[in-house]
Description:
The chain is an all-beta fold. It has strands spanning about 15-25, 30-40, 40-45, 45-50, 50-55, 65, 75. It has no helices and seven strands.
Amino acid sequence: xxxxxxxxxxxxxxxxxxxxxxxxxxxxxxxxxxxxxxxxxxxxxxxxxxxxxxxxxxxxxxxxxxxxxxxxxxxxxxxx
Length: 80
């Protein structure tokens, strides 16, 4: 799977790191995703807890988001 190019403009100087590619199936849809990790950060007094994101060029928002420290996932149900 070829990685797409995503340009991120994150507030407060937060940095996000690529973590490879992964195929994600949600419901009846399968997405070839690029996986990114947002580490625990504190910039200018603004805190952001760690999260993992899965992005695909075929959806305008992350397909899946996992906050750190748990088995909780937020998954795209539908869009369009």
